[in-house]
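A protein record pairs a chain with a discrete description of its three-dimensional fold. The following entry can be read in just this way:
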Amino acid sequence: MSSALSSAVAGPGGAGPLESALARLTDPAGSDADRREAADGIRDLVQDMTLAQHEITGALIAVQDRMTALRALTQINVESLGEAEADVRMLTEARTMTDSDTVVLVGDDTHLYAGPDPEAAAALVRLVRDQLAAPRQVPIAVTDGGATVVAVLRQPDPFRRALGFARDGWAFTTGDLQLVEAVMSATDMMQTLTRMHLEAVERAAIAQEHQAASSLAQAVLAQPLPRVDGVELFCSSMPASLAGGDFHVFAVVDGRLWFAVGDVAGKGLPAAIVMSRAVSATRVALRTSLDPGAAVAAVSAELYDYLGDVGVFVTLVVGVLDPADGTVRACNAGHSPVLVRQQGRVRPVAADTAPVGVLEIEDPTVTELRLAPGDALLVGSDGLAEQEDGAGELFGYVRLEQVLAGGPSSAEELGRQVLAAVAGHADGTAPSDDCTLVVLTPSGAVAR
């Protein structure tokens, strides 16, 4: 009840002006002048009461409008986060809730406003920017005789924002500032959700792009294994992430099996992109070179400048196996492991040539060996030996050589035994690097 209404109805001691005037009006002993004066007083009191009722009604409507605005302000539609329209709706509700003439939301290089006067909004934006640029900031600053309020949101760089509230010629009260704090908290929440939403959308888009690029990169390796009489071939390649830098290439030329296994320094999508180009260069080299050394030199000539630009190198081994007599000629450009088992004994094939991209390769070394029945050639990537167990211990080259030494003569069975040994050592530990394994064994000489 307003003060005017309460004082009119009941004054001190329970008798208000209205009751007193009614008593005078109905007093039989009163004069006509007293009755006219009492009637005039009653009319004045009724007018005051009517005005008071209008004030109360207006105040109730204003409170209802503010409550409606507060509910609208806190009901954030997640699907609209990040859209300018959502921020404008928020400012409109904030303007209603705080009974402001103009409300602005200002960032480092953007601003939005709600209000009828663009010039007033521009002036408020300048004031808010000055507050954002101040060396010392307070959460809520009141200026212009209390008619302007700047509220700095609690957002990290580069998402700094501030709200500005302005009234035309009348000040914000203490109660109004509490409403400003409520708007500030709701806006802070909305801006935080917006930032998290946009970051999630960006991460999802990047992940989708990586998935597509990884699929394309891995598709480069998707080719059926060649079938060559007199040779058994096993091949497995597992990237540590969606895509990797390991690769393998096979070709059959004049009845001989050409093979190449490489490893791009690094892992993930960047390594996979380089890998796809290395695969293309290697495929051409296998079909156009006379021997493995020439093939490695051709790959080096094609990739040297490119690898220098991107700052990586590629380890590569290229070989050709003649099933007629089991002869293998191979060129090892910094790759490991490359192991040969002959008569039950295992030894490495030395890496006598620098990795591709480190030096220009012109006359690489070629190693020749012969595989008899029961022998095997194993070419892998360092992800095999570097697989860790739960305690961080590596599988290691010694274990790899032991498995090869005691393994079966079938390339398929030997390859699966090696992978099982590595997986058993890992015991559920995720691989830290790509893992590729190629095994070649003779299955009988073929006369030509």
Remarks:
- The chain is about 45% helix and 20% strand.
- The longest helix spans residues 174-219.
